[in-house]
Specification:
Radius of gyration: 36 Å
Shape: rod-shaped
Strand content: 5-15%
Number of domains: 2
Distance between the termini: 127 Å
Largest sheet: 4 strands, antiparallel
Helix content: 55-70%
Number of helices: 6
Order of helices and strands: HEEHHHEEHH
Length: 174
Amino acid sequence: MNMMSNLSLRGMVSNQNGEAKTTSYAVAEAFKKRHSDVLRSIKNMKCSQRFRERNFALCFENNELQNGKPRKFYQITERGFMFLVMGFNGEKADAIKELFIDAFEWMANQLTQAFQSKWARYNLITNQYNNQKAHVSGCASSMSSWRWEKQPMENEIAQLEQDLQPQLNFLDDK
């Protein structure tokens, strides 16, 4: 039995706006079905309209072979995939379902790790930002009081420097 590997199915599950999804093309390829048969299976599913809208996004792409005529396909969530392939049976179909489920799980883990990594970075950056803000805020209030103290102090320093300069008395030539 020439079966797809888990690694090749990982390429058939992708990150679409932070959610693991596959396409009707990938389902057709994995299960060795014609794409039109997969589209028909989606069309004939007995599920609620709400479920269909949430789990099967109708998309179009240009078909180079037919002068750019739009060709339809579906972006499918993991739940949509499960519902769709429930009707595909046989040992080979079951093995492919299992691999697809593993691929969805792998993608979900990738998304979770990326999300957790972003949270860790967010926490680090916000802590740095808040610490720096508190420091600058403290400096700013010191700067405000310094602005009022600076000029009188500079004036006093200048006066003291003048007073401390040695005075040379020149004798008048008389």
